[in-house]
Amino acid sequence: MVAGWFTDARGQDFRLLGTRCTACASVFFPREDSFCRNPACAGGELAEVPLSKRGRVWSYTDGRYRPPSPYVSDPQVAWEPYTLVAVELAAERMVVLGQAAPGVSTADLAVGMEVEVVPGVLNEEAGTVWTTWHWRPVEVAV
Q1: How many CB atoms within 10 Å of residue 89?
Q2: Strand partners, 84
Q3: What span, in angstroms and rounded, lies between the C-alpha atoms of 133 and 18?
Q4: Distance between CA atoms of 50 and 62, rounded to whole angstroms?
């Protein structure tokens, strides 16, 4: 994935990393390192901030088709549908899109459900592992 978008995937406190404008406090993800994207702000100093670990499902859907190039996939391997989740991070006042954790389908999700960000694998090839983030429902204590 893209360097600097999340903490070390092996760490206990896995987090997405954004940036916050020091002038207006707007938070950006993906991170912005050049200028404040808030059109009402003339600020330009941005500080890296870890985003909330948990959020609430804002929307979700599934991908049931193989995307076209430049998406990397082996046409000889059967296509496996995946679940996309849009998660509202209340503290940051933003929605972040990502895949659901393996094994989580649209049947397992509901709008408003609490989810947490966890490390995931985007692709493995020739000994190289590309990491990413996934959203996983938070288990409810009974």
Answers
A1: 21
A2: 61, 99
A3: 14
A4: 27
CA 52 – CA 64 distance, rounded (Å): 29
d(C-alpha 59, C-alpha 91), whole Å? 18
DSSP string over the chain: --TTSBS-TTSSS--BEEEEETTT--EESS--SSS---TT-----EEEEEPPSEEEEEEEEEE-SPPPTTS---TTSPP--EEEEEEEETTTTEEEEEEEPTT--GGG--TT-EEEEEEEEEEEETTEEEEEEEEEEPPPP-
Is it the case that residue 9 has pLDDT exceeding 70?
Answer: no
CB 93 within 8 A of CB 141: no
Degrees (nearest 5) of the Cα angle 134, 22, 7? 25
**Which of these ranges, 13-17, 73-77, 100-104, has the smallest mean pLDDT?**
73-77
For residue 135, give both structure tokens.
């959203």
* pTM for this prediction: 0.85
In degrees, rounded to 5, the angle at the alpha carbon of residue 65 between the alpha carbons of residues 64 and 67 is: 135
Sequence-distant (6+) residues with CB within 8 A of 72 are 123
Distance of alpha carbon 96 from alpha carbon 74, whole angstroms: 28
